[in-house]
Amino acid sequence: MSTAFKKYDRVVVYINGQLMAEEATVSMKFISGLSKVKTVVKGFAGVCKGSEEVDISMSSAIPVDGFEFMPASLPQGTVINVAAYTASKTYSADAIVMGYDISHSTDDHAKISLDIAGQYQDWA
Predict the structure, then answer these.
(1) Which of 65, 86, 106, 119 could form a disulfide with 11 if both were Cys (CB 3.0 to 4.6 A apart)?
(2) φ, ψ dihedrals at 22, nearest 5°
(3) Is 25 strand, coil or helix?
(4) The pLDDT of residue 117 is above 70
(5) Among 57, 58, 54, CA closest to 29
(6) 71 phi and psi angles, rounded to 5 deg
(7) Can you give the CATH number for the domain in which 75 is found?
(8) Which pLDDT belongs to residue 74?
(9) Is 78 a member of any domain?
């Protein structure tokens, strides 16, 4: 068994072609949209196809000198392009801003979090 160290990658995010340099966390949940089919006799009988989507949650630090992007420039319902890069692969799709929130806590920096619903695309 090899125990050699490896170099690991991170995800870099762009919105409308702009690098999100203050991005601190990102989560991309690829949802198949499959629905379970159950019958009286078989119990779980299989699945049927539904609507695929990607739910993206991104949190960015807010620097003292201002937002990386103004929340008013990405109001709820705005169609944006989201691109993510990792491990020499790219995810790029149109998406809709579902909402955002701004938060902070004791001993932690201020941050803005975006909730985005996107088209299901494979990494290319």
Answers:
(1) 86
(2) -95, 0
(3) strand
(4) yes
(5) 54
(6) -55, -35
(7) 2.40.30
(8) 81
(9) yes
Q: Which range of residues forms the domain containing residue 60?
A: 12-118
Return the exposure string of 105-117: e unless at least 16 CB atoms fall within 10 Å of the residue's CB, then b: eeeeeebbebebe
pLDDT at 30: 93
Q: Give the tens place of pLDDT for each residue, 48-98.
A: 999 999 999 999 988 888 888 777 778 889 999 999 999 999 999 999 999
**6 lies in a domain?**
no
Residue 36 lies in a domain: yes
Number of domains in the chain: 1
Q: Does residue 44 form part of some domain?
A: yes
Structure tokens at 114: 């975006």
Check pLDDT > 90 for residue 34.
yes
For residue 32, the model assigns a pLDDT of 92
Token reading at 112: 């803005």
Question: Closest Cα partner for 85 from 7, 17, 5, 6?
Answer: 17
Which pLDDT belongs to residue 72? 75
pLDDT at 70: 75
